[in-house]
Amino acid sequence: AKQICNDIRQARVSIRVTPVDDKGDPETAEIMQGIIRNIERQSKATDAYEMAVSNAVSSGYGWIRIRTDYCDPMSFDQEIKIERIPNFQSVYIDPESTTLDGSDAEYCFIFDNFSKEKFEELYPDAMPVSVEMGDWQDDDSVRIAEHYYKEYQEREIIQAKIFEPMTNTFKVGVVTKEEFKVLEDNGATIEELDRRKSMFPVI
Fold first, then answer.
1. pTM for this one?
2. What is the per-residue pLDDT across 2-49, written as a single tens digit (0 to 9) for each?
3. Which of 10, 53, 150, 162, by CA, is between 20 and 30 Å from 199?
4. H or E segment at 164?
């Protein structure tokens, strides 16, 4: 197990952005790669990746979390952070999920145990409630759960031929009905080819 973890550490795992077909734009991919590299650096993402690898090698499951938070106490700007989840047993995903990365899961719980003092500090207006299933509260600690789930929004998407003035060419792309209208209102040369309704997951 140590050999596998060391090999992965030496490989310096990180997120890569690659344009994969004729619709992919290398310049856009390079910009996105730079943004992600900065997020990884600011988050010390290597620690999160190594923790996930260590847990995955020893138990079969390793997790990282990606969330947003305010940059500092006096800011309204938020930044993306990549964080460790030290205890792989604190994450429960939809048992009907079948993909290796859990991307088809419909819901997920992340549990944390806090001392009663810390719980009261973080949630002064909350009352801990006993739950029949599981050990949610004892004399020393309170368990809280974050619950993430998917809801689906039906939206109309349009396949369109869009004129690119920079290259003086047309490209075929897919936009939402709202985006199509904005392009039209701004005087873009755009031709509808097809349309359909699609379900968009929202977390």
1. 0.72
2. 777 788 777 788 889 888 766 667 888 899 999 999 999 999 999 999
3. 162
4. strand 151-164
Name beta bridge partners: 66: 82
Assess contact for 40 and 81: CB atoms under 8 A: no
The widest CA-to-CA distance across the chain, in whole angstroms, is 71
* N-term to C-term CA, the chain: 35
Strand partners of residue 148? 108
Instruction: Tell me the CA distances in angstroms from 145 to 73, 88, 164, one per residue in order.
Output: 25, 14, 48
Tell me the C-alpha distance between 184 and 105, whole Å.
37
Instruction: For residue 181, give both structure tokens.
Output: 């209208």
Tokens of 57: 């090698």
Question: Would you state the structure tokens that stand for residue 46, as one six-digit string?
Answer: 């290597």
Q: Which two tokens stand for residue 36?
A: 């992600």
